[in-house]
Amino acid sequence: MRILATLLQKEFKQIFRNRFILPVIFILPVVQLILLTYAASLEMKDIRMVVVDMDHSTVSRRLVNEFSGSPFFRIVHRGSSYPKASELLTRDRADVILVMEPRFEKDFYREQSTDLQLAINAINATEAGLVNAYCTQIIAGFNNELRSQFQGGALQIGNTRLDISPRFWYNPMLDYKIYMFSGILVILVTLIGMMLTALNLVREKEMGTSEQINVTPIRKYQFIIAKLTPFWFIALLELAVGLVIGRILFHLPIEGSLLLLFSFATVYLLAVLGIGLFLSTISSTQQQVMFVAFFFIVTFILMSGVFTPTESMPPWAQKANILNPAAYFMRVIRMVLLKGSGLQDIGRDFLGISVYAAVTLTLAVVNYRKTT
Amino acid sequence: MKRFAGFVRKEFLHIFRDARTLAILFGLPMVMIVLFGYVVTNDIKDVRIGIWDRSHDHITREAVSKILSSGYFVLAGTVETEEEIGSLFRSGGAKVVVIFDPGFERTLIRENRAAIRLMADASDANSAQLAQSYLQSVLLRYFQDLNQGATLPWQIEVKPRMFYNEQMKGVFMFVPGLMALILMLISAMMTSVTITREKEFGTMELLLASPLKPREIILGKVTPYILLSFINAMTIVLLGFLVFGVPVAGSLWLLMLESLLYITLALSLGVLISTTARTQQIAMVMSLLGLMLPTILLSGFIFPIDNMPLILQWFSAIMPARWFVVIIKNIMLKGTGMAFIWKETMILAGMTTLFILAAVKRFRIRIQ
Q1: CA of B194: which chain A residue's CA is closest?
Q2: I need a labelling partner for B257 at 20 to 30 A (CA). Which of A190, A305, B13, B347 fits?
Q3: B155–A112: do the CB atoms touch at under 8 Å?
Q4: Is residue A2 in some structural domain?
Q5: Would you kindly state where each structural domain of chain B is located, as residue ranges?
Q6: Domain finish residue from A123, A138, A161
Q7: Which fold has domain B47-146?
Q8: In terms of domains, do A34 and A73 share one?
């Protein structure tokens, strides 16, 4: 016990005397957390639209007014020539072109149906999908308004009046930030925990100081516990700091139990640190371990569902996520914080991550050799 | 010159002798492109929904089967109370619940009125919104069929056309982004770490004391990485084309030249980092934390820059990746030439000069 206490003291001292690593551990992640949450927004605010109105009719003008009145759209150019508009699209000065051909209004009244073209820059498919949805929504709204002038009342199909009303639980304002914030927090905690652990141990190896430890009576498990505890502690602290910031800046809801979240995080971090430790036992230089760790972190993050829902992934990827610790925490942090899920809801994830932690730590300890 | 060649050879040997790092160096781009091509998608597919059918009649049953056969939704279960919806959402069992009120068919036939309520778990605002609008359109189509294919009168048909990416594949956006990310990380991170490593081990002193000029040492250090990064860039382009059909609409030569410019930029940034960092650990944390997330998120790689708050738009202007992404998109997807990208190219060239000057100024020949 005394050996462990001394070792721990040494590890903490080593970290806290390093004037460079401390700000990197605490300030950089906090700054990133704040900036990136603002950056990671899929809410469209300023869609740049070019209007090509070849009809110059009342209906076409009224439709354009709908767009210029919407807070989501900004009309950057009006004209009646398509080639000019299309060049703006190529030059990335516009996101979408609205084209109304000469018979637009006439068809609308005579044929009861008229065409309208949207040309959307679709290089970013997600963005294009949203632009399309926003445009369609505004056009449909305008269409209903016109229709109700003739018909009166709501959406009418044949004789039926259909009324579909959606309600959004947990997040009625459809705020995307709280969702991204919790995701980025998971990334940062994982990144810090895994990287620092992996690097720290290999550093001792590379410098030759681990040999000095090897010849002391310190036991394997004592050494490893002493190596892991500081980073485990730092990562948990970072999670706490992150939650406070989220609460203050983004009104991050904390619907569920913080105790549950932190219990889960405790086990999760053991799994993550275990991976870091395991990687460091199979590497000999810092450069090597960093690269391997980086590879795993990127793969874990991308598959964890931080940017896109895991349900949209192909079945093989969903199955592979059993091996992805970040996927567990990503799911749990959002369930507990945003929806107030309890232990019975995350029981399976809790069990899964516990097994995961046990396996990685065992692997790491078994694989760690005192002799070279 | 012979001296320099020998030094470069030594650096190559250093890299090639570490098979694991080398495997990841080349494996990383491939894994990333597969992940982005297949895994990172926003498609609505197999969204789990709950049904609360309080009417249990012919119409509601048929509506439910229409929803489930649309291919977008799978049945997670039926619910009977408001509490059950809550617990279904909390356990992540379903994303949307469709509610038919009692006497649905009767109201429809007698009063020609139908009301359907949709409850969505909006903790993930985007997919909730998407799932909800897909459900609406499936239901709308069903009711149109019920009315013998009645079309809506006074209809404005919207005909969207998707430019440069007609099938709206996410990977079109990710190929330029991945090139920017991987080149930046490999070049900047690897060079900063190898140079710092020599400093940390004291071998830098040996090198400096050798007849090699400092200029030659740095050039010798970065040369292997120029080659490796360039191979990586071409691998990404080739994989994107072969596996996902991402075209190179413009000039391949221009693409290569621009990639080289960007690689040079990233390498000089790496050298600059190495002049500041004392230990490998510091160099790594600086390049990883300082470059990875900002490059992913501020380069317009996943999230459009135009939507960001103004301050972040300014921030993104100092991210080299942002300009490189614009260049690559123009050459590969839009097929435009230098006339459209000279400004971005100038910015990258300017940044490179700046980094090189700063690195030269900070590079110390003497050890304190």
Answers
A1: A287
A2: B13
A3: yes
A4: no
A5: 2-39+170-362, 47-146
A6: A161
A7: abc type-2 transporter like fold (3.40.1710)
A8: no
Neighboring chain A residues of B307 at a CB cutoff of 8 Å = 41-46
CB contacts of A146 in chain B (<8 Å) are: 154
Q: Which domain holds residue A330?
A: 7-40+176-367
List chain A residues with CB under 8 Å of B14: none
Indicate the residue of A135, A184, A291 with minimum beta-carbon distance to B21. Answer: A291
Question: Which of A162, A197, A310 best probes binding to B when mutated, by most B CB atoms within 10 angstroms?
Answer: A162
Same domain, A270 and A196: yes
B contacts of A88 (beta carbons < 8 Å): none
Is A166 contained in some domain?
no
Q: Evaluate whether residue A171 is within a structural domain.
A: no
Place of tokens 């078994």: A366
> Which pTM was predicted?
0.81
Pairs of CB atoms within 8 A across A/B: 339
Angle at A166 between CA A162 and CA A167, to 5 degrees: 150
Domain boundary, last residue among A132, A161, A190: A161
Residue among B163, B194, B282, B286 with most chain A CBs within 10 A, to mutate: B163
Structural domain count, chain A? 2
Same domain, A213 and A357: yes
Q: Which residues of A touch B303 (CB under 8 A)?
A: 39-42
- Same-domain check for residues A219 and A293: yes
Question: Among B88, B318, B32, B320, which Cα is nearest to B187's?
Answer: B320
Residues A242, A180 share a domain: yes
Residue of B nearest to A296 (CA): B28
Predicted interface score ipTM higher than 0.90: no
Q: Looking at the structure, tell me whether residues A134 and A262 fall in a common domain.
A: no
Tell whether A191 and A337 lie within a shared domain.
Answer: yes
Cβ–Cβ below 8 Å for B329 and A112: no
Please indicate, yes or no, whether residues A64 and A118 belong to a single structural domain of this protein.
yes
| CATH for A141 | 3.40.1710.10
